[in-house]
Amino acid sequence: MNGSSDSIRLKEAEEWLSNFPRLFDLYQRSQKGNPRNYFNFKKLFPIAYAGAVAYADIETALAKLDRISWERLSKKALSCVTADDPLRRYHQLFSVLNEARGYVYLANEGYEQIEFIEDQSRKSPDLLGHKANSLAILEVKTVNQSDEDLVEESLRGGGAIEVEPKLSVRFKSRILRGIRDAREQLDAFPKATDKRIVFLFVHMESTQRTCGESYADLKSFIDDQNTDGIEVIHQATP
């Protein structure tokens, strides 16, 4: 690589370090030479890459983590940086990073001591939050598009779509499955808690992303799941 190319790459790295420091830190720790590395696949450099803007949302959440929490989450995320699924690509990586959204939620609710639970067995929730006389546990679940929708979206290639204002039975089933799995993990926590929270990060189906009625239907459906001492909240992709 000549001096000019080296200079450009250094400038791009500095821009990523400035704008997306925690994603860049994850990249620096990862297996850079692995051809399945997400950041190489997405061409982390240059910052002008059109998709870079989409990273701002998750970077904002990651920036809220204290140093110890970031160490724990990044350690978990590293194992997913090279996990490339033929259909869903790097969904495992972003499902892990989405756990930062649960941390931010607890912080916004006034929990002052928040930690990722290190025992990440299948029956363990993700987060524990403490504040005056209150203890909360929280499990983050990412609800992704269905396989069918991903295939159909790929075949359309960005073409026109028919908007579906109401959530499909298939998609609601995916949401209920995520809540059920999260509930099992919360119920298995051995200590008494004041709050048990399921945090859903929902990737809307491609036919519903532009329809306000779909988001209203999503909110109503999720609100109906707040039962038996479990609080279910959500964020959805725009």
What does this structure look like?
- By secondary structure, the chain is an alpha/beta fold.
- The chain has a domain at 98-236: Trna Endonuclease, Chain: A, domain 1, CATH 3.40.1350.
- It is 46% helix and 14% strand.
- It contains 10 helices and 5 strands.
- A 5-stranded mixed β-sheet has the order 1-2-3-4-5, with helices on both faces.
- Strand 4, helix 10 and strand 5 (230-236) form a beta-alpha-beta unit.
- Helix 1 packs across helix 2.
- The mean pLDDT is 85.
Brief characterization of the structure:
With 238 residues, the chain is α/β, with parallel strands linked by helices.
Task: Write a concise keyword list for the protein shown above.
alpha/beta, 14% strand, 238 residues, Trna Endonuclease, Chain: A, domain 1, five-stranded mixed β-sheet, globular
